[in-house]
Amino acid sequence: MHIYFVGIGGTGIGPLAIIANQSGYRVSGSDKQASKYFDYVQEQGLLDAAIAKDESHLAKIHATAKVDWVVTTSAAEKEQADHPILAWARQNGIKVTKRDEFLSWLISEKSLKLIAIAGTHGKTTTTAMMVWLFKQLGQPISYSVGAKLSFGEMGEYNPQSQYFVYECDEYDRNFLSFQPHLSLISGIAYDHPDIYPTEQKYFEAFRQFVAQSATTICWEIDAAKAQLPFNSDIIRMNEQPLGLASLTMAGEVNRRNARLVMQAAAELFPEEDLVKLADIMNCFPGVSRRFEKISENIYSDYAHTPEKIAGALQMAKEMAGENFVVVYEGLHNTRQHFIKAELKELFSGAKKFYIVPSYRAREDESLEDLTPTKLCELVKQPTDKQPAELNDELKSEIAEHVAAGDLVLCLSAGGGGSLDEWLRKNF
Q1: Is the peptide bond before 84 cis (omega within 30 degrees of 0)?
Q2: Residue 74: what pLDDT?
Q3: What is the reported pTM?
Q4: At what angle do helices 13-22 and 36-43 cross, to 10 degrees?
Q5: Residue burial 41-54, b: 16+ Cβ < 10 Å; e: rest
């Protein structure tokens, strides 16, 4: 079978293309822009990929090696309703589906049991932690995670594995494509109003996801919030300590995510000692763009919802006390409108606050552009704040903070052309 991936340089599609290639299928694809993730998939041997905004590359590939299936992201047609690549594929009788339908088919085809990591926040880190634990226990595992790992690739298919660990995204109801063997929910807070017009609709989707899962592990507070049913298929965790097992990793959010993974391991491998599992989790090396150290005292974090931002700020305070500053790049102008009430006080505690232009994608163009200046006027705390651009002036400001001993937390939400990419080039 020949599969063509649209958006092959993305953090969701890229690992899936790698997995398909390792599973024995012919793989090709394209992306609309160059990025470090596009380079990454080519480094993994997927050389039949190109930067293309139209159907030219697909048509050329199809003419020489018939394409059977085009796999795409939810974002492609939301950004461009008449997406030329997808339109051409359909006109030429090629099957077109979103990535999760393909992965659901692949999991079934390979007779794997799905361990699904869902939630509004914490999915990527929790998924990476689960992969880390499997590898440290010597258990073969197949997986896909939406970030680079220091201890493995972003996607991997192991023919010896019994389980597939996957970061299950609720955007566009993608996670409802699966029937998980075990689901972990890292946290629930209303998000994606473009897909779920009300909070109740959002919670309903999580209830359906839980109903489709054989067993679910979640926090009691989230179970109550989403009104998950009381039954034996749902393990509700509370804030009780782990007894002899001590988690010492930095960040309250990280410790909570690690507890979910340890509970899952206790279900999957009941013979394993709890203290041993905690020791493994305490050695977790972290994941790209989740409080990732770029250079001395400069960190990049993908936090873009209020809950994720609060978790990143808590970790900064834990590490630096009052000596930390924040550089903020919002994910989508649309989302800034959705969360602007929370933004007013969300960053309180920071020594100084810089706002750069939001990373734009999947926008509602009817909304006012919340520029850095307008967002600065909206934010009440901290009082020392300023709009900024990704330029030499900001570079100098960051360098001065580092020289003064401040921790610089950069909240960067985008891919190519983002604050994160700018940081890596300059620092």
Answers
A1: no
A2: 80
A3: 0.79
A4: 0
A5: bbebebebbbebee
